[in-house]
Amino acid sequence: xxxxxxxxxxxxENIVNNGNKFITGNGYMGFRGTLEEYTKNELVACNLxxxxxxxxxxxxxxxxxxxxxxxxxxxxxxxxxxxxxEPLEHVQVLDIMEGVHRRNTVWKTEKGKVTIKSxxxxxxxxxxxxxxxxxxxxxxxxxxxxxTGIDGDVxxxxxPHLENYSFEKGExxxxxxxxxxxxxxxxxxxxxxxxxxxxQETVEESEKGIFRYIRFYAxxxxxxxxxxxxxxxxxNDEACNIVAECLRSAQKAAEEGYEKNYxxxxxxxxxxxxxSDVLIEGNDDxxxxxxxxxxxxxxxxxVHSDKLSIPARGLSGQTYKGAIFWDTEMFMLPFxxxxxxxxxxxxxxxxxxxxxGAREKAKYYGYKGAFYAWESQEDGQDGCSDFNVTDVFTxxxxxxxxxxxxxxxxxxxAYAIWETYKFTVDDRLLLKGGAEVIIECARFYYSYAYxxxxxxxxxxxxxxxxxxxxxxxxxNAYTSKMVYHTLEVALETLDLLLKKYPREYxxxxxxxxxxxxxxxxxxxxxxxxxxxxxxxxTLVIEQFSGYNALEDCTLKDVKSRLQDPKEYWGGGHGVAxxxxxxxxxxxxxxxxxxxxEYSDEVKKANWQYxxxxxxxxxxxxxxIYALLSCDIGNxxxxxxxxxxxxxxxxxxxxxxxxxxIYIGGTHPAANGGAWMSVILGFAGLQINDGEISIKPELPxxxxxxxxxxxxxxxxxxxxxxxxxxxxxxxxxxxxxx
Amino acid sequence: xxxxxxxxxxxxENIVNNGNKFITGNGYMGFRGTLEEYTKNELVACNLxxxxxxxxxxxxxxxxxxxxxxxxxxxxxxxxxxxxxEPLEHVQVLDIMEGVHRRNTVWKTEKGKVTIKSxxxxxxxxxxxxxxxxxxxxxxxxxxxxxTGIDGDVxxxxxPHLENYSFEKGExxxxxxxxxxxxxxxxxxxxxxxxxxxxQETVEESEKGIFRYIRFYAxxxxxxxxxxxxxxxxxNDEACNIVAECLRSAQKAAEEGYEKNYxxxxxxxxxxxxxSDVLIEGNDDxxxxxxxxxxxxxxxxxVHSDKLSIPARGLSGQTYKGAIFWDTEMFMLPFxxxxxxxxxxxxxxxxxxxxxGAREKAKYYGYKGAFYAWESQEDGQDGCSDFNVTDVFTxxxxxxxxxxxxxxxxxxxAYAIWETYKFTVDDRLLLKGGAEVIIECARFYYSYAYxxxxxxxxxxxxxxxxxxxxxxxxxNAYTSKMVYHTLEVALETLDLLLKKYPREYxxxxxxxxxxxxxxxxxxxxxxxxxxxxxxxxTLVIEQFSGYNALEDCTLKDVKSRLQDPKEYWGGGHGVAxxxxxxxxxxxxxxxxxxxxEYSDEVKKANWQYxxxxxxxxxxxxxxIYALLSCDIGNxxxxxxxxxxxxxxxxxxxxxxxxxxIYIGGTHPAANGGAWMSVILGFAGLQINDGEISIKPELPxxxxxxxxxxxxxxxxxxxxxxxxxxxxxxxxxxxxxx
Lengths: 737, 737
Description:
Chain A is an alpha+beta fold.
């Protein structure tokens, strides 16, 4: 049962949350865990990766495809759906081993029970394909109408994004095409519906949808099953004729039949799990939560394309504009690096590909180099608005500085490229754009920095660190340290290229117009860059200049000041703004990333200082506290943070609002954080210069963890056990290919 | 009638405004224009200059003395006062020529009319003294009780400030003493009440007051007059025994009698007007408004003490914490420099005396030198809170950056010292602290500035300019230019001292530990300091970096977005914050101050660009627009701004709230601005190196302006006339002593 997520009762209040929790996907699209009879009111979404649209002057956001699985049941003239009629029994299941969504609902009618059963999967073997198997079963004979087809009236946060709807009814298929508003990209969906029973079938079009009406008299105690093969293509796909391809994909699937498609899909999942599964013995809840986290990462991994990355809310909808944040580089990349290096490369390649957007952003703000977007969309343009929060008291948009001041994203990109390079030792990464990006990031920071003459140091001013509640701060320890790291790897990259690839080096520096003088400036910048240091007595590192002077109150104090539960805590005058209460790991994140440079005493002092002052209002926070405590050997501190992280999308208890803006959805950064907590935290896996080592400490109750990693083409199996009598933890690292 | 301010009808709604409008004072104290029967509910205040108190953790603010003029009338058992009984006739008068407040109120009672008449003045000849003459007159005989004495239950915004009340009833006097909460400063008031009619008199104490009850049967058609001599002393006075002095002052006044005191007081006023009056022929309203502005400046001038300066709301109450703002240096000092150089010296001396406070503030924020307080109290400490506005929607205090980022105040202090020095050529000003202050201000800016290496320039970052709505901006043109000016005069001061006073120079630089190296740094700082320049095509100077990117909407747009009339427009997310709408003259102020350095084209372009974007939400704004337009010869642009400025305290139509915080009171900066508009604007008076010149242009309807100025001990009479037939304006400058 450690592979099954289940909800055994229908509850209207869980509809939104279950949409996230029971999601299926394949990196090309994510299908929310909604029931077949739902419409946009229940936030049905077939969210497409990398296709964005802007409607008027609203936020740009990803496009949801038409809903090809829509199916509604009418029995003896009465519509039966969970929203219409309270079911007698209802169970919704997500099988994360096979990536399959199931539902089973029973209603009591005057003529006895009526049961609907379905299962569906978003195919891993054909990323354009969704397959549905849906059966109706009645205790007595009755007249049944199954309305099924393609519902193009999709959920949008800032839409509508689709227009120019056109419909086609073929001999066997139905098809819906539409175009996006801004860039006129075609989105097309075809559906073929198969059945093995006789029925009268008509097709009708509505304003935005095309539907079959399948009418038949059901015999008692007989199962009537339909199979739907739904294909989705967009103008962003590389196919020459996407409409034809779309139809071909549905036709091929229909010809092969449901079972064959299912097998192919499950086989792909088996491969994925083979390398990525992590076995936890001793706690079934933790086992499920971790697997579920890995599942979430798998369904959004852009395995099929090197042009995509992963949005902050995965493919669970349009929240956060479907944009790529630093979450990917800092919280998801490690999982992919260790288990799916090609996917990791794709993620990094997305940043290399979108360098132009980062350069444009830097130029816009008067800087040089590459200023990566806070919310990066398809070409690296920043989807972030200047007003990201709505004041709950006035309904007015609130100016936030996420877009212009959260400069640490460029450093995260450089960090990710460098981590990937160290992991893969693949020089092509640097040669094919990676080096250029790193250098452009370093340049950006030089143009952003100021020199404080009377202190003989450079400072990074006016930024937002990971803790977003405190805007426009100076000398944020995390940001400054990351800038330093960027400079370090930029200089190392230059050295490396000069030595190994003198020709490419010359091309690069001449292409970038990078003079020796400019390099010397970067060297001086690095040597005199101010990074806040541990305070002598307390060992605490001040999060930013002036943090120590803020009001030192408790989280409870700050909460008690809220007058509206949806109030935004930060910005101009949120309840946390003038206090020491922070949203998420900031100094602690820095200490984790650069853990080899700080003593355990410093790490411990800062963990203890900042943890009580941290809201963990971001899904990026708890895992970092888990990881740093593992690093200093305090797995008992770490465990509750692991649990919180790994269960975030299972419980759905994360923050749903920033101001009055809905920010719900899945939390891939937390999913990645859960994996990191176990593999890099409890197992203490370290890879240095291609050498694997572990430093395991298992939480209480855990007897074993076992997992695989890929390193430079080799697979390793790591098996860690705790001896129940001696309580000694030992582990093996076994090369298996 | 050009000396009389009058209100001929009682209207409850005017009570607060009339308190400001009919104010009397003498620099030691200001007595609000309230009626004798009023109490703290009607905002009675005898506001004391330079005595501050803090109650708990509330704002520090000036202390109001007990109200020694309190008098309430009871006729035949019925209390008669404007609040109790609608009067039949009521007139309130302020005679600004003599500095006298009068009221005359008639009630209709069952026994016919009852009249109360009073006049009072806050003495210019004894700054501790207030004299009151109050008469009762009834048409029929009736029983009268006059309750009069000292009401210690004073109005406080953030009080109570007085405690430990003690009362004394002497043979002829009554006395009330109390101490302030924070510093335990004694405040004492003595009252002697004289009358020439027989009455039964008792004295009673209340919790915070001591009152006489004067009972008598009034004959019909007979005037019964009492004379009150009220004296106020505090522990801040230099007297050895303030209690004895206080009593002596009242006794002396009582012995001399009302008329003699009155004559001495009026004689002093005559002297004041002799030098400061400005004659305007052709428009009586303008004549009165300007005289009234001068009156306001006279009643708050700290002529008697070189330890005081003038608070931003004069002595009209506790608004703005009774603190000294840059208003004094930039908007009031010119009037005093030209008409009362000793008072001007006192103002400047206040800043020299409080250098320590400015140094402490710099130190607190991690800077060197002198960071003058945004709201300076008695020792230069900053009365400004980190939260200066209350959010009208939540009732929560809003963090503002006035205190920590409005750094231009140090430059205003240096500017004022230098202006005073140029005016007086009195080297002692520099030798006795002025030079030290200027250098410490320059040092402060060096430690505040950052060097932008890739642009090879210093920048002044993270400030608030005069326009307070836009907080934490970079390269505010006004601030940067003022910093430049500070550096300029600091270096000039050093040169001057080195040449003329080598010994004092040595003492100064060694006392300040000012090395040659540091001076070279200041020179480099000055030469590479970035000051925003006129844009090539438009000639407009960007108010700060990024101003041009703000929303360019109209004042009307911004107003239409208000959801509450008391909303604060600026700060974290006020309605003006993200727009180009500014509170007050900013670039235009810079252009006025440095008018010799910019072309008329630049001045005109900026005036035209910024004026429609200026709310004039500060009393410091309209006069600057008037002055700059006079400077470029557009007196028709200037005139309405002069009218607005000069009438601010007469109409009481200025802003009353910042957020939900009451900011009402008088506006000495506007009063000073009105004087500047006429003398430096329309008359075009200029003094360069001791040479007086004029460049007059009179507004339409004005035929003549005539005034005096004092320059370096000499008096000049300037007489400007417009020939009604030729419309030619000519003027004479006549040396009269």
